[in-house]
Amino acid sequence: MASTFGDNSTVLGDRKLHDEIMIAKGEYSPDSKAEAVSGKPHASAFTTVDYTVEERPFFIPIRKDGVIAALEKLDQQLQNAGRTRLFSKKVPTDWTGKEVVPGQLGLINHGGSPKVLTKPGRYPGFPLRNWWARSWCGTQGLSDTVIEFHGLTVVQVSQNQAAVVSDPQNHVFVIKNGGFVAYAIEGTYDVLSIVDQTHLPTIIKDKLTGVVLGSTHEVKMNSKVSGGQQKEYVVATFLNIPASNCAILQRGDDLELLGAGQSVITNPSVTLRGLYTLGENQLEMPTKDIFTRDQVPVSLTIYLKWQLTEPLKLTTHGYNTPYDALRDKTQSILTQIVAHLDYSSMVKQRSLGPDNMDDGSDPSSAFLDALRTRAMDDMHEAALEYGIILKDLAVIDRQFKGEIAATMDKLTTRALQAQVEAANVDRENSNKVKQEEGALSVTRIKAQAANAQADAEAYRVIAAAKAQAQKVRIEAEAQAEATRMAAEAEAEAIRLKAKADAEVIDQFAREMELRRIEVARVQAFGSRAVFVPSESAGSQMGNAMALGMAASMGANAIKK
């Protein structure tokens, strides 16, 4: 990108502007030392003398080859003019002396004239004749933004920076995205400020809507006047205008439109008239008291929505903001409309907007019709004269004043009290109904809970009975199976024992077994028991005796 210079004019950088903008712009081409690139030439009140285009002695722009190359060109110019050269003849060593590292510039004071060392290395302090009338003044970085040393000035700024410089004739110029090296024989090149163009400190906002219009920064220069006093004067004004915004510049009676972007004004004849937004804005605006046809004062609150499209028209009519123009015109039009309406035609209508503008059956349709047919049309037509498009207008409130207003307030207060009392009664009834409904719901829930609990208890009893029956059946089956198995085992044991006894052939063994049975029987019934054979005569006589005793006892029982 080419380095941009400008003097006592408005520098607009590398961007196209609207055809209406006719502000001088100066650029240095990388291939030409003093070629001014200003686009299409045209006559404008804003075109001023560009001092940078003129030949300045010992002034070298910094090109792509860097600072050292520019210093070499400056040194050559000084030698050709018969002046003290800029570069020192000292040769660096590598063992002792003042050190200059790569990327730095060594500075030497040679009897008040500057000398520079560009080659890295060490520069010894002897022989003494080499330092006679010379003093070492340290080093500075080659990439430093500003280097000032005994009339030598080096300035180089980055893409977002701008340097404001005053030359020996107090001509102020601005450098952006470039730099220069210069040696002032008479006077000095003073770097007044290095400005960060993307972050200007002063934010400009619309006082009513709060919209950010842009940011500015003023660069001032101290000047000595008579009596040794010093005063500050603004020599440059930087502007950073966001998208959809613009600025109006003024020089005498001429106005110019400046679009969005970064700009700087150095021409003292050019002033900033104002910053404006081209986007939509909306605002609620109270009006002054307006009298109806029957002399009832009323105050309206209206809603406005607009968009500024031609700021030059607005400033030409002398208004600083769109709101100022709309406020005066709105007050005038509403005063004319309300002055032809009666109090009765306005009292029932509190607002005018898109929701109620088409209802022709409204009792206050005269008020609505007047606002719809006259206010909107007249306001729209009047706004176009100021470069404003009126997009919406609505009356959102009105307040009557005077005795009628006091009477209306009393009636309104009574109506409100009646409404409050009715609302309280309705609220109490509603609360009672809700309480009864709540109690009924609680009862219903409790009944449902009791039914659920009874169902659960019945299910539990049935389940318990089924479980008990199942348990008894299982136990009985188990007991029967156990008895059957015990009987089978006992029968099997008897059978086996009888079989074993039957298989005994020896007589002595049988006799011994009988004796053992006898012994077991005696042990079972006791030693005093008498065993009577059941198949003998004695056993039959015992049976007869038992029968006789039974018959005798039966006969006695019958007699009794």
TrEMBL record:
Name one matching Pfam family: Band_7
Q: Which residues form a coiled coil?
A: 462-499
Query: InterPro entries attached here?
Result: Band_7, Band_7/SPFH_dom_sf
Q: Name the keywords, alphabetized.
A: Coiled coil
Q: Which residues form the Band domain?
A: 247-425
- Source domain of life is Eukaryota
The protein depicted here goes by the name: Band 7 domain-containing protein
